[in-house]
Structure formats: C-alpha cells, structure tokens
Amino acid sequence: MLKYQLKTPVAFIIFNRPETTERVFAEIAKARPQKLLVIADGPRADCPEEAEKCRAVRAIINKVDWDCEVLTNYSDVNLGCKRRISSGLDWVFDTVEEAIILEDDCLPDPTFFRFCEELLEKYRDDERIAMISGDNFQFGRRRTEYSYYFSRYPHIWGWASWRRAWKNYDVEMKLWPEIRDGGWLRDLLKSTKSVWYWRYIFEKAYNGKKDTWDYQWTFSCWTQNALTVIPSVNLVSNIGFGKNAVHTNIKEKYADMRAEQMKYPILHPQYVVQDSKADSRLQSEMFSGSSLLLRIIYRTLRK
C-alpha cells in the first residue's frame, strides 16, 4: 500500500449509515489528514429508528486517533440532501481554501488522496478548472497515456475543489431562466438529445422538485465553462447503492465499481482541452435516459 501523509483538509459528509461510514472513515484514517471537517444531517421526524443510526454514525468520528483538528457541522433536525450538503459545503469553503470531499458511501483507493492533493496544488490558480474528481466511468477506455483528462462533467463520488470555484455555486440556480431561455445549453452541449435531458434535469432542480445539491454544482460549473479533472482509472467505489440509499436505491453498472490505484509520478497532459469523445460516450451511457424519458421530455418542452 502506498503510504502518504495528507496535508489537505478532508470534508466528510455523513448521515445515517454506520456500515458504509465506518468503511470510508477507515480509509480517511489511513490518510491521516491534519484537518477533518464533518457535515451531518439530523434524523427525519417520520423515521423513529433514524435517531439512533445518526448517533452511531457520529460516534465513528470520535475514533480519530491521530494528530488531527476535527471540526463538526451537525444539524439537530433533518434539512434534507439539498439544504444540508449545500450549506455544509458553504461552511467547508468558508473555513478552508480547498478540500477533498467524501460522502459516507464513497470508498476511495488510498491513492485517491494524493491524486487530489497534487492536482489541487497544480491547478490552484487555474480558473479553467473547477474541481478534481476521483471517478472514471469509461470502463478502461482511454485516449492517451496521461494520468487524467479534462471533462465537462463534475463527478462527485469523491472529489476536491477550491473556495474560488465554490463561490460560483448557487443552490437556487438563479441564472437558470436566462441560460434556458437564451439557448445557452445548446451552445455547450451541441446535441439536441443532451439539451432535452439536461433542460429537464435543471428545470426540476430549479423548481425544487428534486431534493439534491449536485445538479446545481454541475450547473454552476457549466455557467463558468469550467472543466473537471478525471483520473485515467477509477479511484472511488460507490458502495451506497441499495434500498437504504436516499437517491441511489436501484443497483446499476456504476454501483460498487472497483477502485484502482493511481500510478505515480503523475503524468500530466501538456494541454487543457476537454476530451469530447469521452464526454460524448458518458452523455450517451450515463446522462441520456431511456427513449421513453426522452419522449416525455420532448413533449414537456414542446408545451
């Protein structure tokens, strides 16, 4: 195992799943970050058994046994995914300039932390880059021998970013009507099918019909035409798919993907250009929806 002493702060988002939280915490503990910021939501009022689960999850954080400053941002009441994670990350980036972020179901390979730390430093002042991801959904397909490529898709199953990028985040998506009505999605995505899909998604997020925070992050990155660093191998496994998950309750091919090791030293590309081929595959496979959904979207947009 690659031993690495982590200087970058880690933000850990937890809720009600002791089993997955324990596994992710164990990997964080191996990295021994000097600062750990923990975001936790409160139990839902209509789930009487959840209070004990939330207590058990928070007790895991008390197992920090290395030299580490632990900061907590715990809610006594349930705020929901949208409000809790967005407000928690606001707190994180008010507190530190940059951070590596893991949710309680995102299990990283140990090399994930060094990958994030090195690239946070390399692109710290490069406004073209919004974040570093630990995810790769190309299933072994790659275009170069470099250690990473650039994408328009900000994957957040293990990621890192800076205060300078997060300042563009707006959970209310106030710019959406202007972007939607001005046809700016077409300029960005080119594909009519992709425009239908993302217009449908962003409309739901804007109207509060989906309790989530991450579509708003995608939107904020796109409004700045910002890119994400994607590793050449998948560094994080999402172990949270299943009946107890809030959003990922249906198993799919992205569930429990094997986390691989990043080879060092990192081989950096000599250019900052979006890999449109990789993004096109991803849009088609991950962000297109079924043909039925597309027909529904099309009818909705025609009204």
Concise structural overview:
This protein has 303 residues and is of the alpha/beta class. The protein has helices at residues 18-31, 50-61, 80-95, 111-122, 163-166, 176-181, 184-189, 192-206, 214-223, 276-286, 291-302; strands at residues 10-14, 35-40, 69-74, 98-103, 106-108, 129-133, 148-151, 159-162, 227-231, 236-238. It is built from eleven helices and ten strands.
Descriptive report:
This protein is of the alpha/beta class and 303 residues long. It has one domain (10-302): Spore Coat Polysaccharide Biosynthesis Protein SpsA, Chain A (Alpha-Beta Complex). 39% of the residues lie in helices and 16% in strands. The chain is built from 11 helices and 10 strands. It has helices at residues 18-31, 50-61, 80-95, 111-122, 163-166, 176-181, 184-189, 192-206, 214-223, 276-286, 291-302, and strands at 10-14, 35-40, 69-74, 98-103, 106-108, 129-133, 148-151, 159-162, 227-231, 236-238. An 8-stranded mixed β-sheet has the order 3-2-1-4-8-6-9-7, with helices on both faces. Helix 1 (18-31) links the parallel strand 1 (10-14) and strand 2. The longest helix has 16 residues, at 80-95. It is globular. It starts with 9 loop residues before the first strand and ends with a helix. 39% of the residues are buried.
SSE blueprint and pairings:
Blueprint (H helix, E strand, L loop, with lengths): L9 E5 L3 H14 L3 E6 L9 H12 L7 E6 L5 H16 L2 E6 L2 E3 L2 H12 L6 E5 L14 E4 L7 E4 H4 L9 H6 L2 H6 L2 H15 L7 H10 L3 E5 L4 E3 L37 H11 L4 H12 L1
Parallel strand pairs: 1-2, 1-4, 2-3, 6-9
Antiparallel strand pairs: 4-8, 5-10, 6-8, 7-9
